[in-house]
Design goal:
The chain has 308 residues and is an alpha+beta fold. It has three domains: 2-57; 67-167 and 261-307, 2-Layer Sandwich (Alpha-Beta Plaits); 176-250, Double Stranded RNA Binding Domain, CATH 3.30.160. It has seven helices and eleven strands. The radius of gyration is 22 Å and the shape is globular. The relative contact order is 0.12.
Protein backbone atom coordinates (compact mmCIF):
# COMPACT_ATOMS: atom_id res chain seq x y z
CA UNK A 1 0.00 0.00 0.00
CA UNK A 2 2.89 2.38 0.73
CA UNK A 3 4.40 1.67 -2.68
CA UNK A 4 1.02 2.17 -4.38
CA UNK A 5 0.61 5.49 -2.57
CA UNK A 6 4.06 6.72 -3.69
CA UNK A 7 3.43 5.64 -7.29
CA UNK A 8 0.03 7.32 -7.28
CA UNK A 9 1.57 10.56 -6.01
CA UNK A 10 4.26 10.39 -8.69
CA UNK A 11 1.70 9.86 -11.47
CA UNK A 12 -0.47 12.69 -10.13
CA UNK A 13 2.52 15.05 -10.16
CA UNK A 14 3.20 14.33 -13.85
CA UNK A 15 -0.49 14.57 -14.76
CA UNK A 16 -0.76 17.95 -13.05
CA UNK A 17 2.36 19.16 -14.90
CA UNK A 18 0.87 18.08 -18.26
CA UNK A 19 -2.41 19.84 -17.43
CA UNK A 20 -0.55 23.01 -16.42
CA UNK A 21 1.37 22.96 -19.72
CA UNK A 22 -1.89 22.62 -21.65
CA UNK A 23 -3.51 25.49 -19.74
CA UNK A 24 -0.47 27.74 -20.35
CA UNK A 25 -0.45 26.90 -24.07
CA UNK A 26 -4.14 27.84 -24.30
CA UNK A 27 -3.34 31.12 -22.57
CA UNK A 28 -0.53 31.83 -25.05
CA UNK A 29 -2.69 30.99 -28.08
CA UNK A 30 -5.24 33.62 -27.04
CA UNK A 31 -2.75 36.31 -28.06
CA UNK A 32 -4.09 38.72 -25.43
CA UNK A 33 -1.30 41.18 -24.56
CA UNK A 34 -2.99 42.02 -21.24
CA UNK A 35 -2.21 38.46 -20.13
CA UNK A 36 1.51 38.77 -20.87
CA UNK A 37 2.54 39.15 -17.20
CA UNK A 38 0.40 36.21 -16.13
CA UNK A 39 1.78 34.10 -19.00
CA UNK A 40 5.37 34.93 -18.06
CA UNK A 41 4.76 33.98 -14.42
CA UNK A 42 3.17 30.68 -15.41
CA UNK A 43 6.04 29.93 -17.82
CA UNK A 44 8.60 30.47 -15.06
CA UNK A 45 6.68 28.13 -12.74
CA UNK A 46 6.54 25.52 -15.50
CA UNK A 47 10.26 25.80 -16.14
CA UNK A 48 11.05 25.25 -12.47
CA UNK A 49 8.67 22.30 -12.28
CA UNK A 50 10.10 20.77 -15.48
CA UNK A 51 13.65 21.05 -14.12
CA UNK A 52 12.59 19.38 -10.87
CA UNK A 53 10.78 16.55 -12.67
CA UNK A 54 13.71 16.07 -15.04
CA UNK A 55 16.01 15.72 -12.07
CA UNK A 56 13.73 13.30 -10.23
CA UNK A 57 13.55 11.18 -13.37
CA UNK A 58 17.28 10.54 -12.93
CA UNK A 59 16.62 8.96 -9.54
CA UNK A 60 16.10 5.47 -10.89
CA UNK A 61 17.65 3.37 -8.13
CA UNK A 62 15.61 0.65 -6.48
CA UNK A 63 15.26 2.60 -3.23
CA UNK A 64 15.69 6.21 -4.33
CA UNK A 65 12.09 7.01 -3.36
CA UNK A 66 12.42 5.51 0.13
CA UNK A 67 12.88 7.30 3.41
CA UNK A 68 16.48 7.63 4.56
CA UNK A 69 18.49 7.00 7.71
CA UNK A 70 21.40 9.39 8.04
CA UNK A 71 24.15 9.11 10.66
CA UNK A 72 26.94 11.54 11.49
CA UNK A 73 30.06 10.37 13.37
CA UNK A 74 32.72 12.75 14.68
CA UNK A 75 36.31 11.93 13.75
CA UNK A 76 39.34 12.22 15.97
CA UNK A 77 39.96 15.66 17.40
CA UNK A 78 37.98 16.09 20.60
CA UNK A 79 35.83 19.20 20.95
CA UNK A 80 36.50 20.49 17.44
CA UNK A 81 35.41 17.21 15.86
CA UNK A 82 32.36 16.94 18.13
CA UNK A 83 31.36 20.51 17.30
CA UNK A 84 31.80 19.80 13.57
CA UNK A 85 29.53 16.76 13.82
CA UNK A 86 26.90 18.94 15.53
CA UNK A 87 27.24 21.54 12.76
CA UNK A 88 26.61 18.84 10.15
CA UNK A 89 23.61 17.57 12.12
CA UNK A 90 22.15 21.09 12.13
CA UNK A 91 22.90 21.44 8.39
CA UNK A 92 20.90 18.32 7.54
CA UNK A 93 18.06 19.28 9.88
CA UNK A 94 17.79 22.69 8.22
CA UNK A 95 17.96 21.13 4.73
CA UNK A 96 15.22 18.64 5.63
CA UNK A 97 13.04 21.36 7.12
CA UNK A 98 13.35 23.63 4.08
CA UNK A 99 12.48 20.74 1.74
CA UNK A 100 9.44 19.51 3.65
CA UNK A 101 10.93 16.35 5.16
CA UNK A 102 10.04 15.03 8.60
CA UNK A 103 12.97 14.10 10.85
CA UNK A 104 13.06 11.79 13.88
CA UNK A 105 16.24 11.62 15.97
CA UNK A 106 16.78 7.90 16.49
CA UNK A 107 19.83 8.21 18.70
CA UNK A 108 22.24 10.94 19.78
CA UNK A 109 25.49 10.72 21.76
CA UNK A 110 26.67 14.09 23.10
CA UNK A 111 30.33 15.09 23.28
CA UNK A 112 32.03 15.45 26.63
CA UNK A 113 32.21 19.26 26.49
CA UNK A 114 30.68 20.34 23.18
CA UNK A 115 28.82 19.05 20.16
CA UNK A 116 28.05 15.39 19.55
CA UNK A 117 29.98 12.18 19.05
CA UNK A 118 27.32 10.68 16.81
CA UNK A 119 23.69 10.98 15.79
CA UNK A 120 21.27 8.88 13.76
CA UNK A 121 18.26 10.49 12.08
CA UNK A 122 15.30 9.03 10.21
CA UNK A 123 14.43 11.43 7.37
CA UNK A 124 11.00 10.79 5.93
CA UNK A 125 9.56 11.96 2.63
CA UNK A 126 9.57 11.37 -1.12
CA UNK A 127 13.03 10.78 -2.63
CA UNK A 128 14.78 11.22 0.73
CA UNK A 129 17.33 8.47 0.09
CA UNK A 130 17.66 9.42 -3.58
CA UNK A 131 18.83 12.88 -2.61
CA UNK A 132 20.79 12.14 0.54
CA UNK A 133 22.88 9.32 -0.93
CA UNK A 134 25.03 12.16 -2.25
CA UNK A 135 26.17 12.89 1.32
CA UNK A 136 27.86 9.56 2.03
CA UNK A 137 31.50 9.96 2.94
CA UNK A 138 33.96 12.06 4.91
CA UNK A 139 33.32 15.79 5.36
CA UNK A 140 36.28 18.06 6.19
CA UNK A 141 36.15 21.43 7.99
CA UNK A 142 38.93 24.04 8.12
CA UNK A 143 38.45 26.98 10.51
CA UNK A 144 39.86 28.92 13.44
CA UNK A 145 39.07 26.69 16.40
CA UNK A 146 36.72 28.28 18.95
CA UNK A 147 38.23 25.88 21.50
CA UNK A 148 41.86 26.94 20.97
CA UNK A 149 42.99 29.78 23.25
CA UNK A 150 45.69 30.63 20.70
CA UNK A 151 43.12 30.95 17.87
CA UNK A 152 44.93 28.51 15.63
CA UNK A 153 43.47 26.97 12.50
CA UNK A 154 42.16 23.41 12.92
CA UNK A 155 41.01 20.72 10.50
CA UNK A 156 38.18 18.46 11.61
CA UNK A 157 36.59 15.39 10.01
CA UNK A 158 33.22 13.70 10.30
CA UNK A 159 31.82 10.62 8.60
CA UNK A 160 28.29 10.69 7.15
CA UNK A 161 26.49 7.40 6.48
CA UNK A 162 23.21 7.12 4.58
CA UNK A 163 21.08 4.10 3.75
CA UNK A 164 17.45 3.56 2.69
CA UNK A 165 14.92 3.12 5.49
CA UNK A 166 13.12 0.23 3.84
CA UNK A 167 9.71 -0.08 5.48
CA UNK A 168 8.80 -3.50 4.15
CA UNK A 169 10.05 -6.67 5.80
CA UNK A 170 13.56 -7.48 4.61
CA UNK A 171 14.38 -11.13 4.08
CA UNK A 172 17.66 -11.34 5.98
CA UNK A 173 18.54 -14.14 8.36
CA UNK A 174 20.23 -12.98 11.56
CA UNK A 175 21.43 -15.57 14.07
CA UNK A 176 20.83 -14.69 17.70
CA UNK A 177 24.41 -15.74 18.51
CA UNK A 178 25.64 -12.99 16.17
CA UNK A 179 23.93 -10.29 18.24
CA UNK A 180 25.00 -8.46 21.37
CA UNK A 181 22.08 -6.54 22.88
CA UNK A 182 22.66 -3.92 25.58
CA UNK A 183 20.06 -1.82 27.38
CA UNK A 184 20.66 1.44 29.20
CA UNK A 185 18.92 4.60 30.32
CA UNK A 186 18.18 6.99 27.48
CA UNK A 187 19.35 10.57 27.66
CA UNK A 188 18.66 13.81 25.85
CA UNK A 189 15.40 15.00 24.35
CA UNK A 190 12.42 12.74 24.02
CA UNK A 191 10.17 13.35 26.98
CA UNK A 192 10.33 12.51 30.66
CA UNK A 193 9.71 8.82 30.09
CA UNK A 194 13.17 8.29 28.62
CA UNK A 195 14.81 9.05 31.96
CA UNK A 196 12.83 6.62 34.13
CA UNK A 197 13.86 3.19 32.88
CA UNK A 198 16.55 1.42 30.87
CA UNK A 199 14.52 1.77 27.68
CA UNK A 200 17.33 2.55 25.24
CA UNK A 201 18.71 -0.37 23.23
CA UNK A 202 22.05 -0.93 21.53
CA UNK A 203 22.36 -3.87 19.12
CA UNK A 204 25.78 -4.96 17.89
CA UNK A 205 26.04 -7.30 14.90
CA UNK A 206 29.24 -9.13 15.77
CA UNK A 207 30.25 -10.46 12.30
CA UNK A 208 30.16 -6.99 10.70
CA UNK A 209 30.69 -4.76 13.71
CA UNK A 210 27.59 -2.73 12.84
CA UNK A 211 26.13 -1.01 15.90
CA UNK A 212 22.56 0.31 15.96
CA UNK A 213 21.08 2.25 18.88
CA UNK A 214 17.54 3.47 19.43
CA UNK A 215 16.13 5.53 22.30
CA UNK A 216 13.19 7.54 20.94
CA UNK A 217 10.47 4.90 21.41
CA UNK A 218 8.49 4.62 24.64
CA UNK A 219 9.41 1.08 25.60
CA UNK A 220 12.40 -1.21 25.47
CA UNK A 221 10.53 -3.61 23.18
CA UNK A 222 9.67 -0.82 20.73
CA UNK A 223 13.27 0.39 20.72
CA UNK A 224 14.53 -3.14 20.11
CA UNK A 225 12.10 -3.69 17.24
CA UNK A 226 13.14 -0.40 15.62
CA UNK A 227 16.83 -1.17 16.14
CA UNK A 228 16.41 -4.58 14.48
CA UNK A 229 14.56 -2.96 11.56
CA UNK A 230 17.42 -0.50 11.08
CA UNK A 231 20.01 -3.28 11.43
CA UNK A 232 18.33 -5.28 8.68
CA UNK A 233 18.25 -2.21 6.45
CA UNK A 234 21.96 -1.61 7.06
CA UNK A 235 22.89 -5.24 6.39
CA UNK A 236 20.81 -5.20 3.22
CA UNK A 237 22.48 -1.99 2.07
CA UNK A 238 25.92 -3.38 2.95
CA UNK A 239 25.31 -6.39 0.73
CA UNK A 240 24.02 -4.12 -2.05
CA UNK A 241 27.16 -1.97 -1.81
CA UNK A 242 29.38 -5.06 -1.96
CA UNK A 243 27.67 -6.17 -5.15
CA UNK A 244 28.06 -2.67 -6.62
CA UNK A 245 31.75 -2.55 -5.68
CA UNK A 246 32.33 -5.95 -7.30
CA UNK A 247 30.62 -4.68 -10.45
CA UNK A 248 32.69 -1.47 -10.50
CA UNK A 249 35.87 -3.43 -9.87
CA UNK A 250 35.11 -5.54 -12.93
CA UNK A 251 34.73 -2.28 -14.87
CA UNK A 252 38.06 -1.04 -13.52
CA UNK A 253 36.50 1.94 -11.70
CA UNK A 254 36.48 0.69 -8.13
CA UNK A 255 37.38 3.23 -5.45
CA UNK A 256 37.10 2.09 -1.85
CA UNK A 257 35.04 4.29 0.44
CA UNK A 258 37.53 4.61 3.27
CA UNK A 259 37.91 7.22 6.00
CA UNK A 260 40.64 9.09 4.11
CA UNK A 261 38.53 9.61 1.00
CA UNK A 262 36.86 12.93 1.82
CA UNK A 263 34.00 13.95 -0.44
CA UNK A 264 33.69 17.62 0.49
CA UNK A 265 35.69 20.38 2.14
CA UNK A 266 34.21 23.30 4.06
CA UNK A 267 36.67 26.17 4.55
CA UNK A 268 35.78 29.03 6.91
CA UNK A 269 39.30 30.49 7.25
CA UNK A 270 41.30 32.20 5.72
CA UNK A 271 38.51 32.44 3.12
CA UNK A 272 35.05 30.90 2.75
CA UNK A 273 34.47 28.06 0.33
CA UNK A 274 32.70 24.73 0.11
CA UNK A 275 33.98 22.37 -2.61
CA UNK A 276 32.86 18.87 -3.53
CA UNK A 277 35.85 16.73 -4.51
CA UNK A 278 33.80 14.41 -6.74
CA UNK A 279 32.11 16.99 -8.95
CA UNK A 280 34.30 20.11 -8.45
CA UNK A 281 31.09 22.01 -7.64
CA UNK A 282 31.91 24.85 -5.26
CA UNK A 283 30.55 28.02 -3.71
CA UNK A 284 31.88 30.87 -1.60
CA UNK A 285 28.65 30.90 0.43
CA UNK A 286 29.89 28.50 3.11
CA UNK A 287 27.58 29.85 5.82
CA UNK A 288 24.54 29.36 3.57
CA UNK A 289 25.53 25.73 2.93
CA UNK A 290 25.95 25.10 6.66
CA UNK A 291 22.51 26.67 7.09
CA UNK A 292 20.98 23.97 4.87
CA UNK A 293 21.52 25.20 1.30
CA UNK A 294 22.71 21.77 0.15
CA UNK A 295 20.54 21.09 -2.87
CA UNK A 296 22.98 22.48 -5.52
CA UNK A 297 25.68 20.09 -4.22
CA UNK A 298 23.28 17.15 -4.12
CA UNK A 299 22.03 17.80 -7.65
CA UNK A 300 25.57 18.28 -8.97
CA UNK A 301 26.59 14.90 -7.54
CA UNK A 302 23.54 13.05 -8.89
CA UNK A 303 23.95 14.59 -12.36
CA UNK A 304 27.64 13.61 -12.25
CA UNK A 305 26.68 10.09 -11.18
CA UNK A 306 24.22 9.66 -14.03
CA UNK A 307 26.49 11.24 -16.60
CA UNK A 308 29.65 9.54 -15.35
Amino acid sequence: MQRISKLRNEITTWQNAIKQIGDTLELAEMGDETLADELEAETQKLQQKAERLEFQAMLSGDYDNEDAILSVHAGAGGNDAHDWAAMLMRMYLRWAESNGYKVDIEYETPGEEAGIKSVSMAIKGDWAFGYLQAERGVHRLVRISPFDSNSRRHTSFALVEVWPDIQEDIEIEINDKDLQIDTFRAGGAGGQHVQKNDTAVRVTHLPTGIVVSCQNQRSQVQNLNRAMQVLKARLYDLERQKQQEQFEELKGEHVSAEWGNQIRSYVLHPYQMVKDMRTAHETGRAEAVLDGDLTPFIEAYLRHKVGG
